[in-house]
Amino acid sequence: MSDDRPLLVGLDEAARRLAISRRSLQSLVYGGELRSVLIGRSRRIAVEDLEAYVDRLRDPDGVQALRVVR
Length: 70
Description:
With about 70 residues, the protein is α+β, with helices and mostly antiparallel strands. The protein has three helices and five strands, in the order E-H-H-E-E-H-E-E. It is globular.
């Protein structure tokens, strides 16, 4: 069965999926907290890396407090 879901998303889509601003997402990427790749001049984030980032934010007892990124 074919899966047509994208493997990579742009910064705007990644920010939308995380429900954060593009600027906050860029802080995560450029701060090394969220992996990304460059394809030409376009920065993309693997959907798998978005899911892994969210998993790292959680602890066994629930969601831990998030720090504010400015």
